[in-house]
Amino acid sequence: MDKGKRITGAEREQLAVELKAAYEGGASIRSIADSTGRSYGFVHHILTEAGVTLRQRGGATRTKPSS
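Below the sequence we write its predicted structure tokens.
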């Protein structure tokens, strides 16, 4: 995929299917962006366009577990 190339029509729909499959398979938006040469924002936009429910951000919690 050429960096910065505008993607429309059937090509965009096919890309959305591929990115959705990767994301739903466990890949992060950032890792998809790196592997496709696209920006985080572009990948995020394509996924939301495709109706993907995005995962919550990860990381350690800051609250103590209740005992």
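Residues 9-24 form the longest helix (16 residues).
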